[in-house]
Design goal:
This protein is mainly beta. It contains five helices and 15 strands. The two termini are 13 Å apart.
């Protein structure tokens, strides 16, 4: 779910106006306690009535001048004195398209969805060393693109955090675009099938798919810089339950940091001396390391190369 979709109920309570449809009529949300305090607005007040020759009005979303998710707290939420990190195991999958010639050799590869782009060079070298039983059509071996899912388990070690900051979300804070990273199976199910490039046979048209035979994998460890930024919702007890990733150097880290942050007890924001819930932007950077193990390599019956599916 997008950031706007998750937070839209609060926006409606703040009085966001959804303007007219093709009939030129305004469509406003149901009254809420916050909206009920506003003076009534008569649709079309002060405007000339539409004539039959007028063009239909286009739909317009009118956002408020201020961020409806921000609050003007007396004291903003604060991080624990020493945020704790532990070792944790996370799972993720790399989706790729691999071009296999008639002899079963790999001639090209594409990372369609990669949770560890920091290891992209090692992933590419791994694919280049693979060998396949080529796809067949009408009993003959053919040049094709194989779609594969490399399922991995990564053991992430506690990071060395060099910079960490918690910035309150204010009424004037712009709403950022979230980092869209759906669960692996949900992403695959919604990814549209692509089109096989000229000179190759699409997976869907082959009698048998290209089947991996040798699959040595070298993208199995990492130690280096990381960065992550997310919006977190902090309740009045200081617990972070909802988290929206905005940026991550490696998407595989999103689940790691979500788990770690959920164990923290933060200092909540206060209004009139009382703790209140609030949103804040958390950013961290430093160095981190992990080791990855391939659990399974699955052959997929959907052409991923040349698809309109986004990386994330």
């Amino acid at each position: 779910m997008s950031l706007w979709g998750l937070l839209r109920p609060a926006a409606l309570a703040a009085g966001i106006l959804l303007a007219s449809s093709s009939e030129g009529q305004e469509n406003t949300p149901p009254p809420t306690p916050a909206a009920a305090a506003q003076p009534a607005v008569t649709p079309g007040a002060g405007m000339a009535p539409l004539r039959l020759t007028d063009q239909p009005a286009m739909r317009i979303d009118r956002l408020p001048a201020e961020n409806p998710f921000g609050i003007a707290a007396e004291t903003p939420a604060a991080l624990p004195l020493k945020p704790a990190f532990t070792e944790q195991t996370v799972e993720s999958s790399l989706f790729a398209a691999v071009r296999v010639d008639k002899t079963g050799h790999v001639t090209a590869s594409e990372r369609v969805r990669d949770p560890i782009p920091s290891l992209a060079a090692d992933s590419k070298k791994s694919f280049e060393r693979w060998s396949f039983e080529p796809a067949r059509k009408d009993g003959r071996p053919v040049d094709s693109w194989a779609s594969v899912r490399v399922e991995m388990t990564a053991t992430v070690r506690p990071p060395k955090v060099e910079q960490i900051a918690l910035k309150p979300v204010l009424p004037s804070s712009p709403i950022p675009a979230p980092l869209e990273w759906a669960p692996d199976q949900a992403w695959y199910d919604s990814a549209p099938a692509g089109r096989a490039p000229d000179g190759t046979v699409a997976i869907e048209q082959a009698d048998t798919m290209a089947v991996p035979k040798k699959t040595k994998w070298d993208a199995d460890s990492y130690k280096g810089p990381f960065s992550i930024r997310m919006w977190i919702h902090i309740d009045a007890a200081g617990h972070a339950g909802r988290m929206i990733p905005i940026q991550a150097s490696d998407p595989i880290l999103i689940s790691y940091f979500r788990k770690q942050i959920s164990t923290w007890t933060l200092k909540p924001a206060t209004v009139k001396g009382q703790p209140v819930e609030s949103w804040a932007e958390l950013s961290m950077s430093g160095t981190i390391g992990w080791s990855a193990e391939v659990k399974q390599i699955a052959n997929l019956r959907k052409t991923l190369t040349g698809s309109a599916a986004a990386q994330r």
